[in-house]
Amino acid sequence: MRLSDFKALSFDCYGTLIDWESGLLAALEPLRKRSRVADGELLEAYGVVEYEVEQEFPGLAYSQLLEKVHGGLCRRLGVAEDELEAVKLGASVGDWPAFSDSPDALRYLNQHFKLVILSNVDRRSFAGSNRRLGVEFDFIFTAQDIGSYKPDLRNFEYLVAHLDEAGIPKDKLLHVAQSLFHDHVPANHMGIASAWIDRRHDKQGGGATVLPDPMPHLDFRFISLEELAAAHRAEQV
After folding, report:
1. Where does CATH 3.40.50.1000 sit in the chain?
2. Residues 12, 19, 152, 183: which is the catalytic one?
3. What is the pTM (predicted TM-score) of this model?
4. Which of 80, 70, 82, 14 is nearest to 42 (CA)?
5. Is 12 a catalytic residue?
6. How far apart are CA 175 and CA 8, in angstroms?
7. Which residues of 114-144 are buried (b: 16+ CB within 10 A; e: fewer)?
8. Burial class of 85 by CB neighbour count within 10 A (0 to 12, 13 to 18, 19+)
9. Residues 119, 155: Cα–Cα separation, whole Å
């Protein structure tokens, strides 16, 4: 299997293109100080609570969902809920930084593939992130559009159906993502080839994402988007 075999790349955004853990930690700093937990413990708690809230409120826009996640985190960490902090967390998504390699790698890949976003986000929040990424995506599919959050298979069914309508069959699609739990496990179930961008290769644990068991199948593994772009460039020689 070669990267050049594919016509389209679908991307998870947060954790893959946007450094969501840095963004989250900045937005959650008041809560971290009040709860006196380490960054790693806070991120792990966030991953658990976010998934629970997504399961309970699949139709809620991500910015509003984050407000409920903040309340759940407060309860889990044993501190008082703070409505203002919750609202600020929900509004922070567009301020989260892009990984430094994302814009250049996306500009290169845009010359060779259709670029697709499949993200657990709302359209307004993604607009802020899109400006940081510096490319125009061919398709943007959000949880707000679909009415559910990954790893729900409905998100991937929506992706496959809409790309098929655009003349891109499933066997010409490569899903590119950091989260094994949210992206690679359902991609396996759907028979979609996938590339793991292992942004946490130098860290322990799953951070803000739940770790799946067993490990899903991976067709490619890279530690950055730049490495994926370099691998494709090498195939052209």
Report:
1. 3-19+96-235
2. 12
3. 0.94
4. 70
5. yes
6. 8
7. bbbbbbbbbeebbebbbebbebebbbbbbbb
8. buried
9. 9
DSSP states along 123-182: HHHHHHHHHHH-S--SEEEEHHHHTS-TTSHHHHHHHHHHHHHTT--GGGEEEEES-III
| Cα 33 versus chain centre, distance | 26
Q: What is the pLDDT along the chain (237 residues), one digit of tens a residue?
A: 999 999 999 999 999 999 999 999 999 999 999 999 999 999 999 999 999 999 999 999 999 999 999 999 999 999 999 999 999 999 999 999 999 999 999 999 999 999 999 999 999 999 999 999 999 999 999 999 999 999 999 999 999 999 999 999 999 999 999 999 999 999 999 999 999 999 999 888 888 888 898 999 999 999 999 999 999 999 998
Provide the token pair at 180: 């094994």
Domain 3-19+96-235: top CATH class: alpha beta
- Spell out the CATH class of 20-93: mainly alpha
Interatomic CA distance for residues 153 and 98, integer angstroms: 27
Domain span(s) for CATH 1.10.150.750 in the chain? 20-93
Cα–Cα dist 182/93, whole Å: 18
